[in-house]
Amino acid sequence: MAEGIRRRRRVKIVATIGPASSSLERLEELFRTGADVFRLNFSHGTQEDHAAVVERIRRVERRTGRPIGILADLQGPKLRVGRFAGGSVVLQWGRTLRLDLQATPGDSGRVQLPHPEIMAAAGPGSVLLLDDGKVRLEVTRQTAEYLETRVIVGGRLSDHKGVNLPGLVLPIPALTTKDRSDLTFALEHGCDYIGLSFVQRPEDVAEARELVGDRAFILSKIEKPGALQSIDEVMRLSDAIMVARGDLGVEMPAEEVPLIQKRLIRAAHRHGRPVVVATQMMESMIENPTPTRAEASDVATAVFDGADAVMLSAESATGKYPVETVRMMDRIIARTEEDDEARATRRTQRPNPEKSSADAICAAAGQVAGIIDAKAIAAFSLSGATAMRIARERPDVPILGLTPSMETARRLALVWGVHALTSEVTHTMTETVAQAAALALKSGFAKRRDEIVVIAGVPFGRSGGTNSLRVAQVT
Question: Looking at 10, 39, 161, 392, which residue is catalytic?
């Protein structure tokens, strides 16, 4: 671990990369300031652009000696209207707007909607939200070629604005042709997490799993109400989830979103999956050097709720103050975690261990560390499962995620409280304890004569099966 980069907080920061943050110097500055994972948004930029950013991130990784996670966020199926003859129209309340399949430019009476699957799914009474909900239409007539709608909330509508259909599950795949190309690219370039957009059903995740295998973790973005209906199965098939509050807030009443955030975080804890809270967390800092008090409270609430990570979007991708935003988010998280009430809340969030030796060992490790005032819990793992399992316990001491696999170390960059370090392969518990003590000392987590707790699986060299716990004194 590079000197001076040890994080003083447990909740991680995901920073989206864009024009404001893609240079080598800015990437390193963001990482040193507090970004743990970098997000590549495949809704923007070319694969060549993203390849250059990946190469720069790996250069920062070599410079700092710290594993860095990369999230490749796929665009997903984007539903949009077509073009207007004048670039935009103003839709009046109560007027009729026909949505059809014709490619000719539209006007205030009709416009193209090049999605026959919407024609099939949206019956009379269905509501369509356009441009993030600024315009609302109610379907009055449905045919295979067009939808007749009535404007119930009017306003200006311009070319290619997005369409949301709250309450409807559309018969469309989660992976488009573009997504499949971007997915292949992301895997070839060693991205650590694949962000799966607009998940509606468990089958969407299963389809991605067939393509990804174990080459990356799948992070399912929960932004469609349909996903909530089968959330346990979606989580079981995923490696991590994201509470994507932007689209959730369009398709569901705003007052429901905070409650959904809390429910999804609790469900992720039960399943042992890392969970990211995203969208508009520090949005005012796109233009301003300080956040609003409401934004500071929003970040702190995510910490109290138990999120593994919080995410910046335009704030770090195109904003004027990307580094200052990461620094401010780091400060808010760290201060919140220091609070006695936050510590007490964290203890109440620990789920009941499953009836397995691995869960029993991890639960015991947290208790032992607290009783003896250990300086860290060192979790040895090939796959990262042991470190993720101990993170689920939300212990009061740092977690050292020790692994001989750089790929695993990068994936652990998203996990609550885990400081990922690459280690040598060990063959006995004695070797494992000795290496854990040496790494705890070298990385500044413990001093000589301090005690640490070490957990691992025996026999070594095989994933799964955490079954051993030792207390070791650093020498």
Answer: 39
